[in-house]
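Weekly sync, protein design subgroup
Attendees: M.S., D.O., the rotation student, P.L. (late)

Item 1: inverse folding check
M.S. brought a backbone from last month's batch and wanted to see whether the design step gives back something sensible before we order anything. D.O. pointed out we never logged the input encoding, so this time it goes straight into the notes. Structure tokens as presented (118 positions):
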């Protein structure tokens, strides 16, 4: 199971990331673009993900991933149940979501290469 604290440790190492509490929801963003957000009860982690790939992700693992509410489906976004994620998978999802919102020259920043034990 993944917690906000787990995500916070990963996101804090990523350049240009800031954390915000908006309407009782923890969100991580670069500038004004949110790339990871939690539900109020922290059971769902939403993250930036290419729209054209999300149906495949959800079909592959429907017990883990699901679509956001209909009004948010216009965005590059998908949701995951935090109880179904492990830390390695979360790290990959968070870093990939961050890469979607930062300039390409930051994609290979050393923080993106951190291992679980660091």
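Designed sequence read out in the meeting:
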């Amino acid at each position: 199971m993944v917690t906000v604290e787990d995500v916070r440790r990963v996101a804090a190492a990523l350049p240009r990331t800031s954390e915000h509490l908006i309407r009782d929801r923890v969100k991580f963003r670069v500038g004004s673009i949110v790339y990871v957000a939690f539900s109020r009860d922290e059971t769902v982690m939403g993250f930036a993900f290419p729209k054209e790939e999300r149906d495949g992700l959800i079909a592959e693992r429907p017990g883990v991933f699901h679509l956001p509410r209909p009004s948010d489906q216009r965005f590059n976004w998908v949701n995951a149940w935090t109880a179904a994620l492990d830390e390695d998978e979360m790290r990959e999802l968070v870093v990939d979501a961050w890469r979607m919102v930062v300039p390409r020259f930051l994609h290979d920043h050393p923080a993106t290469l951190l291992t679980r034990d660091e």
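Discussion: The chain has a mean pLDDT of 92. The first strand starts at residue 17 and ends at 22.
Action: P.L. to compare against the previous round before Friday.
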